[in-house]
Specification:
30% helix, Beta-lactamase-related domain-containing protein, Beta-lactam/transpept-like, alpha+beta, four-stranded antiparallel sheet, 12% strand
């Protein structure tokens, strides 16, 4: 699925992230994505750090190591859109964060996003500490 240049509310993107956080099951309990799809989507493929529509944190490249060192857990993954729009999913913290707005190159606001993710994880009651 490609969400290129769609005009959706942040809440809609958050619902999309929540669908993946909940392993493809909608809030009403209906399975929307095939069993195993989410696991496959968030795992690196073909020796890259990209899965099926998501950038992953399960690789060993410098960019992945940098994200993890800044507080984005190894089980986290994200969709990245135009000029830094992103959907971050962190299963260990049961967290979805949506980032909108224009961000400048070269990292398109990723440093700020990672600080937000780390702060949200620290502030989440009953979190699984995987930092």
């Amino acid at each position: 699925m490609r969400l290129t240049y769609t005009r959706l509310h942040a809440r809609t993107y958050a619902r999309f992230g929540r669908l993946y956080l909940d392993n493809g099951v909608a809030p009403d309990g209906q399975r929307v994505l095939p069993e195993g799809w989410v696991d496959w989507s968030r795992r690196s493929t073909l020796g890259s750090t990209y899965g099926a529509g998501f950038w992953t944190n399960d690789g060993s490249d410098d960019f992945t190591k940098w994200r993890i060192s800044k507080g984005f857990p190894k089980d986290g993954y994200f969709a990245s859109g135009f000029l830094g729009q992103r959907i971050y999913i962190v299963p260990s913290a049961k967290l979805v964060i949506v980032s909108f707005g224009y961000s400048r190159p070269p990292d398109f606001g990723m440093e700020d996003d990672l600080a937000l993710i780390a702060a949200a994880i620290r502030a989440t009651p009953g979190k699984t500490n995987s930092l």
